[in-house]
Amino acid sequence: MTRLVLHAGAEFADAGAVHKDLVSRRAELLDAGVVLPPEDDAVRWCDTAKGLLKREPSAMRLLAQASDQGAEVVLVSCDTMGDALVSPGQTARLASLATDEGLAVRVVVVVREQIGYINSLYCHRVRGLDTARSFAEFAETSVPAHRFDYVASFGALADTPGLELVAVPYPDLRDKGAGLAIVEAAGLSGPVPSGSAATIDPDPGPVLIGATRLLHKRLRRLNVFHELGKPRLRPLADQLAARATESGWDSTSFWGWDARLRRSIKEEYGPSNDVFAEFVWGGPWPEPWSTGRPHRVELADLEPNVLLDVFSTVETLLDSVVPQPAAKRARRQGNRHR
Question: How many Å apart are CA 164 and CA 159, to the nearest integer?
Fold first, then answer.
């Protein structure tokens, strides 16, 4: 019986490393009996995963291809799939697909203690121009409400007959390699392909986070979000990150937590983590809570030369989408050379 394995969340808990690692190992996974979606793009993988619930032709072709090849596993990674499977109605549709197609379905999720997880997710959202809020505002307002509560996120999966839920603790991704940890959780009958462990990119630095929030706010003030849309503006954030690297703006990773915020998050999610861990592993939560000293900045507190570099870089990027009058541009360029 072919096994359908969905890596379905939690969103960005693995910083995107699972998908990248699986794509890089496509050939060796195929040799081991694992069929992946034919495209390399993460968005297309999510389309395939969600298409399975609707039995869309392109998604069903992937199952047919795996059956024709005698593959042991069809593996699709989409870390936002967990949102679709919060609903008991949707998990029932997945179970119905399993019955009708003669599949064993295993849903694999990566779970990470929420202090480190929320910090990384915030950096990802800022870098993607999805939020310009402060870290405290982001941490205290979970949208959707279930996002950081694993019982709420994956309870419907656990309760649906015909579906198997497997949870991978975040440290396993670092120890075994991101993609290989998911492949191991998929339950291959033979040995899991081996290789060097994929690295998970560190969070960006606090100056870059502050500069990207500034860029985001100014883009919104100029009304170009409505005109151009985020997909066309996100390359500006990538250029800003490149400038941060070139200029050595940051020597450490962003860490938004202070003692009060850390304590409140631990109190909010600790009991749910313990319930989830007992259900999926039969024991205590395996990952210690993150600690650390705050590493965030207000731009106004930067050294004058760094602040000038940040402002001039942001203004240059803005000029590429909203050209400024020549007089204003000349005046600003003069200020840079003082």
Answer: 10
pLDDT in tens, 9-26: 999 999 899 999 999 999
What is the spatial order of strands in the sheet that 104-111 belongs to?
34-35, 73-77, 3-7, 104-111, 163-169
Cα separation, 85 vs 95, whole angstroms = 11
3-state secondary structure of 166: strand
How far apart (Å, rounded) are the C-alpha atoms in residues 297 and 255? 10
Name the pTM for this structure: 0.89
Question: CA angle, 170 as apex, 187 and 1 as ends, to 5°?
Answer: 15
Distance CA(215)–CA(131), nearest Å, equals 11
pLDDT digits (tens, 9 = 90+) for 134-144: 999 999 886 67
> How many C-beta atoms lie closer than 10 Å to residue 324's C-beta?
13
Q: CB within 8 A of 122, min separation 6: which ones?
A: 131, 135, 138, 139, 254, 256
- Exposed / middle / buried, residue 152 (Cβ in 10 Å: 0-12, 13-18, 19+): middle
